[in-house]
Design goal:
The chain is of the alpha/beta class. The chain has twelve helices and ten strands.
Length: about 325
Amino acid sequence: MVANPMVSVVMITYNHELFIEESLISILNQETSFEYEVIVGNDGSKDNTDKVVQEILKSHPKAYRVRYYNNNPNMGVTTNSKKALDMVQGKYMALCEGDDFWIDNKKLQKQVDFLEQNDDFAICFHNTRVDFFDKNEPSYYVNENIEKDVFTLDDMIGEDEIWFMATASLMIRSSAYGKTPDWLVKSKSGDIPIIILAARFGKIKYLPDVMAVYRKNLASYSHTDSHEDKYFLWNRIFMYNKLNEETGFKYNDRVKRNIARYYFMLLNSTQYRDRYFKNFPIAFKYIQLTFPNIPNVKLVIRDHLIPPFVMNVVRRVKKAFGLIPSE
């Protein structure tokens, strides 16, 4: 184990047998003027992830940097993330999931150099290439159209969900992030809360260098997200309510309208679609959150607040007076 590391690299992994070797070795191959550690949290993978990691620990000359554990039983991705984050000892922490990898051996050095020289920054991230593992689609870059290189918390909180930082690109000042809140284990997203929590105490720097690869594959955790599933949508509502509290309600108006978007999506989710009695309180909450400038107000009132039998009567009356064509 490395004593007093400058950086703690946090890697969570689950069933990444095909990817973990490339990912872990890309971290161990970093060239730095300082010590760093690698916290690898295997959440009880059912494939050969553990075997691959154990082989690296036996053979790689920098294996002494790795602090490895394998959960038994499986804890779930966010609980495992909190466990790994709570082990951080470094002044800075970097993130790399077990199916992503780094492609610049100076990545850690470049980011540490910047943060060491700029105490008013809490986060440093960089451009990242996106590769598709199981689909024949061309690669692209996360930050192809980025317009500036310094951001603040104000840039991260909007009426829509904002995401332009690849997890594998992040380096965060540990003192800015602080202690992982207990509620994070209930959040389906880990990186959004981590970024917002740290950005409360410093600016965010973007480096244009492409230093990591985010690998999209159908087995990744993000592919379980669905904007038509009530569980995902309720979880986003929970997460943004918690972040609203953590930021002292400073951005309350914007956060409320972001939360309202998820209530609107709930109305058409698989579990709530065409269910008037389930939808009524959701529609009412949507109007409450967006009042007085309510997007889609006519649609919400017509389809979700007015009882269906009333709308049927209205349609029949219009039809009887020739206001709508006969079928």
